[in-house]
């Protein structure tokens, strides 16, 4: 994914008592503008493929892979990713369990 314009990193959260159903991957881009240019479907497929290679099946990639930006974190949480990942409802592992 490092070839994608503006891609910074990815991180994950999970409740390991219900893994991989609770796995939540956050892909971080530098700006909202670059984030809006992302082909989310391509990223879902890429991550699903990479995870399968290590024996992890994403049951609902559209729910388990979310996108964010450094710009939004700076604006909304003063750049504090720990606070951002913990506080945002959409990032809650429990709320992002596949149906």
Short description:
With 99 residues, the protein is of the alpha+beta class. The chain is 38% helix and 18% strand. It has a three-stranded mixed β-sheet.
Average predicted confidence as pLDDT: 86
Strand order of the largest sheet: 1-2-3
Largest sheet data:
3 strands, mixed
Structural class: alpha+beta
Helix content: 25-40%
Percent strand: 15-25%
Question: Which labels suit this protein?
Answer:
alpha+beta; three-stranded mixed beta sheet; 5 helices; 3 strands; 18% strand
Indicate the topology.
Elements: E1 7-13, E2 24-29, H1 32-36, H2 40-53, H3 61-64, E3 65-69, H4 70-77, H5 81-87
Parallel strand pairs: 2-3
Antiparallel strand pairs: 1-2
What does this 3D model show about the protein?
The protein has one domain (7-96). 38% of the residues lie in helices and 18% in strands. The chain contains 5 helices and 3 strands. The chain has helices at 32-36, 40-53, 61-64, 70-77, 81-87, and strands spanning 7-13, 24-29, 65-69. It has a 3-stranded mixed beta sheet with strand order 1-2-3. The N and C termini lie far apart (27 Å). The model is unreliable at 93-99 (pLDDT under 50).
């Amino acid at each position: 994914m490092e070839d994608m314009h503006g891609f910074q990193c990815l991180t994950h959260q999970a409740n390991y008592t219900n893994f991989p159903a609770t796995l939540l991957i956050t892909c971080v881009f530098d700006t909202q503008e670059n984030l809006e240019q992302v082909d989310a479907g391509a990223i879902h497929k890429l991550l699903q493929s990479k995870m399968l290679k290590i024996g992890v099946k994403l049951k609902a990639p559209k729910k388990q892979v979310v996108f964010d930006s450094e710009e939004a974190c700076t604006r909304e949480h003063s750049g504090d990713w720990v606070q951002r990942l913990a506080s945002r409802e959409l990032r809650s592992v429990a709320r992002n369990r596949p149906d």
